[in-house]
Amino acid sequence: MLIDSHAHLDFSDFDADRAEVLARAWDTGLEAIVLIGSGNGEDSARDALRLAAADERLWATVGVHPHDAALGLSFPGPATAPVAGAQRMAWEKRRRRVLGRMAMLALHPKVVAIGEVGLDFHYDRSPRELQRILFSDFVRLARRLRLPLVIHARQDGGEICDILEREEAGRVGGIIHCFTGDDALLQTGLKLGFVFGINGILTFPNAAELRRAAREIPLQHLVLETDAPYLTPVPFRGRRNEPARVAEVARALARLRGLSEQEIGAATTANLHRVLALDSRRAGPPGRIAYQVKDAIYLNITNRCTLCCRFCLKRQGHSLGDIPLVLRREPSASEVIDAYRAKGGERYSEAVFCGVGEPLLRPEVVREVGQKLRAEGQRVRVNTDGLASWVHGRDIVSELRGAVDTLSVSLNAPDAATYARLCQPPDAEAAFAAVCDFIRSGSRAFPEVVATAVALPGLDLDACERLARSLGARFRARAFGEYRRFRPGQVSDKGTADH
Hints:
By secondary structure, this protein is of the alpha/beta class. The protein has 17 helices and 19 strands.
């Protein structure tokens, strides 16, 4: 079995016959394809994820290609020129929002890596300074989310190696995409535990350096890719590339190393399973949509989240005790209602939207389900980070009227600086202001709004309560479960707040 570890099937090159392209891949014997959510601006991430969600054999990555590091802005002058003034301020604002959106997308269960991200000083389609900054951002994001990286490196003068080492990319590893034989990148990649993507370039007449490297790199550090629609292997040069042609790459690599195609397929597929943790993503029971906490029934509707809180349950794993919570896909409103009924939801004191992710990233589902349950006499609460109106760019509080009885909003800090340290939002000041606005607006719209904070060592709960009350909400301190000893004043990565 083969896996194409790198294909851009979201590109318009495949709009006319995408289904046929996939059918040929499966007929060729491919086990899976990794769709790269990078290369066509932000749309690539969303489109790759949409495609992956429709087929269990497809996986996705999310990121911003170095060509797109300008984030849609125009920068006249050479790529080596510094970016300053109003242009830099505009870019920084977009940067924060883009990173926040990518972080949310990356929490989808079909996302297996961050990428492709990196540096490209050959085409210089974005200012180099911005490429460096954004690449460092994505390495940090990968570390924060514990996802491997897919790296793009072209004529960067060794800078990519410096960033990989400085940002400790070896903590997550990943794939050096489209490896062409550069010795410095090879040594850095091996040291940091990366694998190297081999594609149709291996068959090109002028690729002697790559063939030398591909012969010598330890087999456990190689994976196969097509980079479709690009880099079509010989003898199909001049035609659009597609995942089925990864078999040609396997054949060429087998000849080069004196192995059978089956041996190459087995080894490279096992390598990709290891690097992207594909087996663990498929293993285990599916996450529960409805589960019990005390005398309430909780509804788990997404894995996605706006924040990456240092005390969050997700840092312990995606379960609550022995209850698996990670969802293989996001349930529809009718599926949530079915799960509620199957669990005997009417027996519980209230229904609470709360699970692995942030429920108000799906406000339409919350509204539809909430209205249905309230019509049947059920009390409905939403546990939220309070960022929904900011994220969606519209008034979510007003949309929830008639669907929700109570809002429980995670305030978690008395000020923006503390909020940034504990909750790690994409834009600390804007996010903290948005939470406060949400609580204030909710307090006017609903009879009960509770602002909460996790009782962490060193956190000023009195200040949190004063802020909550000034916004019109009640306040509740939530217990903090300590799974590992940590020094006073610090937040343990091994703790979890209660529900």
